[in-house]
Amino acid sequence: MGNEKRIRKGDRVRDAKWGGKHTGTVVRTKTSANRRWVFVQWDNIAVEDQLLDYEVEALGTRVESNIPPVFLTVTKTGGLA
């Protein structure tokens, strides 16, 4: 794992993938095929990205409140739910 301390939901992070330009909050995590994914809601951007845990750096702070996801639900017909 890229981080010494495991990143959890609510952790504040900075990207390591794009040179540390963006900060955000982890809204959920997922482990699949021995890879740990983190889903980050970036500050001031209505985008949620899926990154591997080593592609972000923990800032050492947390958000303890409920963090609603940003993504929209899309139906199988391609329209909004």
CATH architecture: Roll
Secondary structure tally, helices:
0
How many discrete domains? Answer: 1
Gyration radius, to the nearest Å? 13 Å
Mean pLDDT reading: 81
Helix/strand class: mainly beta
Q: Give the strand order of the largest sheet, numbering strands 1, 2, ... along the chain.
A: 4-3-2-1-5
DSSP strand tally:
5
> What is the CATH topology assignment?
SH3 type barrels
Shape: globular
Distance between the ends: 36 Å
Task: Please outline the helices and strands.
Layout: E1 11-15, E2 23-32, E3 35-42, E4 48-52, E5 56-62
Antiparallel strand pairs: 1-2, 1-5, 2-3, 3-4
Structural descriptors:
mainly beta, 43% strand, 5-stranded antiparallel sheet, globular, 81 residues, SH3 type barrels
Describe the overall structure.
- This protein is mainly β and 81 residues long.
- It has one domain: SH3 type barrels (Roll), CATH 2.30.30.750.
- Helices cover 0% and strands 43% of the residues.
- It contains no helices and 5 strands.
- A 5-stranded antiparallel sheet has the order 4-3-2-1-5, with no helix packed on it.
- A hairpin with a 2-residue loop joins strand 2 (23-32) and strand 3 (35-42).
- The protein is globular.
- The protein starts with 10 loop residues before the first strand and ends in a 19-residue tail after the last strand.
Offer a concise description of the structure.
The protein has strands at residues 11-15, 23-32, 35-42, 48-52, 56-62.
